[in-house]
Amino acid sequence: MLAMPVDLDTLSPEERRARLRKREAQLQSRKEYEQELSDDLHVERYQQFWTRTKK
């Protein structure tokens, strides 16, 4: 089923604030997830792949 976007101008102020809070909560969770990612690359483990060998 196709859901059409809601016209925010037709909503009551309470409904508008509720939708805004819900959207902000979704955006906050995405930002927190991005900050959890860390760089755990161990260079020594992959160094063999970029050292040149003599032919």
UniProtKB/TrEMBL annotation:
GO cellular component, one term: mitochondrial large ribosomal subunit
BP terms from Gene Ontology: translation
Protein name, as recorded: MRPL55 isoform 10
GO molecular function terms attached to this record: structural constituent of ribosome
InterPro entries: Ribosomal_mL55
Transmembrane domains' residue ranges: none
Source species taxonomy: Eukaryota, Metazoa, Chordata, Craniata, Vertebrata
Pfam families in alphabetical order: Mitoc_L55
